[in-house]
Structures are given as structure tokens and as C-alpha cells.
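Here's a chain:
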Amino acid sequence: MILYHGSNLKINQIDLSKCRPYKDFGKGFYCTTIKKQAEFMADRVVKRQGGIKTINTFELDENIFNDKKINIKKFDKPSQEWAKFILNNRDRNYKFSNSKECNIDCKYDLVIGPVADDDIIVLFRTFVNGLIDIDTLIRELTYKELTDQYSFHTEKAIKYLKGV
């Protein structure tokens, strides 16, 4: 499977220590199956940090899905569980890092699911501020065009990702 990572530089070796915390699925290295999405992310990184728009291409060894030592969390579509997972990972004050409802402690080696883009984050804030309930949040999310993300959180998961 081919995955893309948008950046402002060529990545020869993935260094998880350089990844930022408080992302959708926790601190990790994020990729997508959608090249256009990676291009969008590269544009954002270049605007913030400078550098040259770079689309890094990786091949994911699909044997990762059969490896019993790899803990994978997958969200097929927006759900209450997915929304809470993202809210908890993005919350700098969330205290329950060992909860299955977050990946702050990198208990999941790989997390796969829809991206919570800027429009979705606005919906999340509306929910967090009590202006809509969880059912309304999920219903609104079903009308959004969603993109995917594969986030790698441990070295044992990164070993299945090879640069192309």
C-alpha cells in the first residue's frame, strides 16, 4: 500500500521524537493514501516553517495487519468513539492517558481513520462548548467529505514503512 506524507523536507529516516503531540490520534508520524491531501499538508507546513513543498512516498508492508505484536486501532467512519478519541488526544489537560479513548501513551502502534480537518474542529469546539450534543456532532460529520490518515506511534510500527 502506498502512503504519502506532506512536508517541507525530504524524510530519509522517520524520527518519532520530532513529531508533535496533541494531534488527532496522538503524537506520531502521519500519512495518507490520498496524494492531494499530502500536498495540502505540505503547503501548510511550508507556510508555517518555510522550506520546500515535498511529498514523501512510503510503502506500507501490509503484513503489519497480521502482526499480533502490533496494536492497531481503526475507525472506519466518524463515530462517537472516533470523536471522543480525537478530542482526548488534542486536549492538553486530558489526564487519563491509559484510557482506551486516547493514544497519549502510544498504546496503539498504528491508528487509522478519518482526518479531523479545520471544519471538523469547529464542529468539535461547538460540541465541547455544549452548543450541540454528540448525536448532532456525529450527524453533521456524516455530511463532510472526509480524508484518511495513518498515524504511526512506535518504532515497531515504523519498521513496516519504507521510503519509495
In short: The helical segments are 35-49, 80-90, 118-128, 134-141, 155-158. The chain has one domain: 2-163.
